[in-house]
Amino acid sequence: MNRLSVRVEHWPIAGSFAISRGAKTEAAVVVAEIGNGADIGRGECVPYGRYGETVEGVAAAIAALGPDLPAGFDRTALAARLPAGAARNALDCALWDLEAKRSGIPVHALAGLPEPRALITAYTISIGTPDAMAAAAAQAAHRPLLKVKLGGAGDPSRIAAIRRAAPRADLIVDANEGWTADNLAENLAACAASGVTLVEQPLPAGADEALAAMTRPIPVCADESVHDRASLAALRDRYDAVNIKLDKAGGLTEALALAAEAERHGFALMVGCMVATSLAMAPAMLVAQRARVVDLDGPLLLTRDRPHALHYDGSLMHPPTRELWG
Questions:
Q1: Are residues 124 and 98 both part of a single domain?
Q2: Is the domain of 100 the same as that of 124?
Q3: Whose C-alpha in 64, 79, 154, 156 is 20 to 30 A from the C-alpha of 177?
């Protein structure tokens, strides 16, 4: 009989991480462990208040499945018990990890995927004053891809300052639902003028009709507007790409299915993350193999990472070792 355990961990962020909805100085993650004896599968998730989740609620949802999982409990049974979200993500990834450890077959092979390769990840610049953001961008200007957090008054000045500070870096922007229909065209034009290649979620989910009524000067990516496969159909006239996050999709299983379905609908793929440790990034790397944009820099924003962490060579992230996950 497999046993289930759950714990909450707090990982300090280097400085602070700020988006249009606020700032935080630590990452609170929930870790689920499933197994019995030497083989323990692990998964990590980040509850997100934007979707009505709390650390306590997610931990309780995982624990409610009981210390002893019934025989035959698998990813299909899990999807029937829990909705898409952080709790299901931690358990789904733990079940993949457990199967890999017991079989001796890595997760990519179990999923019918090629062996993962190293990938370039974006590096995030938190929202702040133009001068503060330019200073942060100057320190990271050697990185090939920067993700710029916007979503407030004065965004054209912010992105122009970033471009001056990092003239050679590719730029993507994440507005975190912070723009309005009234300033959308101005902000997109400012991003285009600064050579931004992609803008994430400029308008609030559910209030993004203006995207369908305009000619977009650069590709726009859905983030808060997309969760799992069921959310795709309503996005086709508004977005050019979708950001797949395991915490939204409910784990690797749904994320892989979502990626395939999104491609079938003609969306480009981005794979993103919450601020978390390498344990949360490892399964996302498998989805990221097919993505146009990879944003898995969570561990780079922490003051420390867990043992057997992913190896980052600057912005080049390498696949996990078996000791970490998968």
A1: no
A2: no
A3: 79
Looking at the structure, do residues 80 and 153 belong to the same domain, yes or no?
no
Q: Is 36 in contact with 272 (CB distance < 8 Å)?
A: no
DSSP E strands, the chain: 3-19, 22-36, 39-45, 119-120, 123-125, 145-149, 170-174, 196-200, 220-222, 241-244, 268-271, 293-294, 312-313, 316-317
Domain span at residue 74 reads 3-105
Note whether 100 and 131 are same-domain residues: no
Pairwise CA distance, residues 3 & 24, whole Å:
33
Q: What is the CATH number of the domain that holds 124?
A: 3.20.20.120
In this structure, are 96 and 140 located in the same domain?
A: no
| Entry pTM | 0.95
Q: How far apart are CA 302 and CA 120, in angstroms?
A: 18
Q: Terminus-to-terminus CA distance in the chain, angstroms?
A: 21
Amino acid at 310: L
Catalytic residues: 149, 245
Average pLDDT for residues 229-240, to the nearest whole number?
92
Between the alpha carbon of residue 97 and those of residues 80, 292, 300, the distances in Å are 20, 26, 23
Taking the C-alpha atoms of residue 212 and residue 24, their distance in angstroms, rounded to an integer, is 33
pLDDT in tens, 125-168: 999 999 999 999 999 999 999 999 999 999 999 999 999 999 99
Number of other CB atoms surrounding residue 137 within 10 Å: 24
Cβ partners under 8 Å of residue 5, min gap 6:
32, 33, 67
Find out whether 228 and 258 touch, Cβ atoms under 8 Å. Answer: yes
E runs forming strands in 228-319: 241-244, 268-271, 293-294, 312-313, 316-317
- The last residue of a domain, from among 81, 105, 129: 105
95 in a structural domain? yes
Residues 73 and 202 in one domain: no
